[in-house]
Amino acid sequence: MTEPLLEVSDLTLTLPSKADTDNDILTRLSFTLPGRGITALIGGSGSGKSVTAQALLGMLPRGGSIASGSIRFKGDDILKLPPRQLQRYRGSRVGYVFQDTSGTFDPLLRIGRHFAELLAIHTPLPRGEAKKRALQLLRDMQLPDPERVYDAYPHELSGGMRQRVQLALALAAEPELLIADEPTTALDMPVQADILRLIRQWSVRTEGTVLFITHDLGVVAEIADEVLVMRRGTLVEAGPADQVLHRPAHPYTRQLVEDFASFSAPGSKPLPDEPPVVEARGLTKTYRAGRRWLQRATPVAAVREASFTIRRGEMVGLIGESGSGKSTLSRLLLQLEQPDRGTIQWPPAQGNGSARPSVQWVHQDPFASFDPRWRVSRIIGEGLDYRPRRNRAASSAAERIRAIARETGLSPELLDRYPHELSGGMRQRVALARALLLEPSLLILDEPFASLDMTLQRQMLGLIRSWNERTGMAVLFITHDLRAAAHLCHRVMVMYRGELVEQLPASGLSGSDHPYTKRMLASIPGSRRWAVQRCEPEPITLNIFHGKE
């Protein structure tokens, strides 16, 4: 039997609590990673997935300590390695890909400088050879114009391009193990599919091992050979991917599978005609981008001649790739920006041409929209300070805040906490409570649940649907997740390069004839298996990997 590449034995990791007692965040955790293939680590928010990944690098959370157990990489206990050996282990033997690329890059350094510093530490390559390797890696990641990417700053690249560069950096020193911590969560479907395919190809061609952390069972079905399931810091199930996904043994795993399967259920039925909440006609917005020294800026049409109507009680999905113009369109509706051409018509009752407070917005990253100095109760009630007195309810603001907190699943004790003391799911509930408190006629959700696990996503979508059915609130749901859009919405609008190329009932999404929509549907993780997964890889040349024995 082949020796495992990595072996975790009886690992318990503790953090001090406010009550001066130790709080176990990993408890007697044991598993092995084989010498090749892809193992998925799944579980809900707070299950300990990311803490486990960090522990495999010898990186413990602040105040954390190992109470028992070991982590052995080819027989060496990494928890006992001296600092210099641990540094070599992290770069040359194990590569790491983060969900958020902002923590990977120094914004003051060009991409080439990132490669140069990493390769100088972990390889004996001279500067010229290091640049050749970096450029080849960028080609392997199928980045257009690798020379331009090499000379670019991180902020000059799209999110998908930054994620490909981060993957190239993680593979630059030819590691034996790649740890990928939710690397595709915030990416649109086609880019996500590309990243997954590149990771699988690397594993097949180099016989490398991947630990892929995710909450998306579609990704697991697409890429994983083995699956580990965590809950509350413990391992509850492990086995081959097909067995865990189709014949789960543990009740928690069964719940995860059921939550994911619920997204395949039919969406909302079409509504009878209701009065419009908003009508847009011929919206166009152009930016000027790419201006350099002695060069003229290039006009970029973010939104082109967009026309649509959203009716009372209707939930409309707006789907498209990154850069398709979805967020720009939402900013036009919120009157945060003005269109170059076109009109936005609101019902007369909303008055004075203002979108506030009849329209509310929930961001993808709720933490960035909170004042970190405010407690949750003040954050939720912030909008009441700007609402006309004649529209205020007779009950006190505090009572209204407590009531909306209950409806959105926030316990009373959370109202006295600060944003940094909440989980990602709780923060998103706070953002939703703040928006719903003002009883909007239109709620705009801009990629609000991309980082949440399937159980939390289902809870949040169920909450929005029940509020919609009870109050008649209209919803514009901006997302790259076609499953969620089809599950929640009555109707879907597809946006491509600034144009609304298709508008159709959510129930008819799978039967679309538009080539762009069909490409997005084909990119949904789990919808198909790549040839590279179970047999020979697709014929794409990855030169940088060929010489490794």
Automatic annotation (TrEMBL):
<dbReference type="InterPro" id="IPR017871">
    <property type="entry name" value="ABC_transporter-like_CS"/>
</dbReference>
<dbReference type="InterPro" id="IPR003593">
    <property type="entry name" value="AAA+_ATPase"/>
</dbReference>
<dbReference type="InterPro" id="IPR003439">
    <property type="entry name" value="ABC_transporter-like_ATP-bd"/>
</dbReference>
<dbReference type="InterPro" id="IPR013563">
    <property type="entry name" value="Oligopep_ABC_C"/>
</dbReference>
<keyword id="KW-0472">Membrane</keyword>
<feature type="domain" description="ABC transporter">
    <location>
        <begin position="278"/>
        <end position="522"/>
    </location>
</feature>
<keyword id="KW-1003">Cell membrane</keyword>
<dbReference type="Pfam" id="PF08352">
    <property type="entry name" value="oligo_HPY"/>
</dbReference>
<keyword id="KW-0547">Nucleotide-binding</keyword>
<dbReference type="GO" id="GO:0005886">
    <property type="term" value="C:plasma membrane"/>
</dbReference>
<keyword id="KW-0067">ATP-binding</keyword>
<keyword id="KW-0813">Transport</keyword>
<comment type="similarity">
    <text>Belongs to the ABC transporter superfamily.</text>
</comment>
<dbReference type="InterPro" id="IPR050388">
    <property type="entry name" value="ABC_Ni/Peptide_Import"/>
</dbReference>
<dbReference type="InterPro" id="IPR027417">
    <property type="entry name" value="P-loop_NTPase"/>
</dbReference>
<protein>
    <submittedName>
        <fullName>ABC transporter-like protein</fullName>
    </submittedName>
</protein>
<dbReference type="GO" id="GO:0015833">
    <property type="term" value="P:peptide transport"/>
</dbReference>
<dbReference type="Pfam" id="PF00005">
    <property type="entry name" value="ABC_tran"/>
</dbReference>
<dbReference type="GO" id="GO:0016887">
    <property type="term" value="F:ATP hydrolysis activity"/>
</dbReference>
<feature type="domain" description="ABC transporter">
    <location>
        <begin position="6"/>
        <end position="257"/>
    </location>
</feature>
<dbReference type="GO" id="GO:0005524">
    <property type="term" value="F:ATP binding"/>
</dbReference>
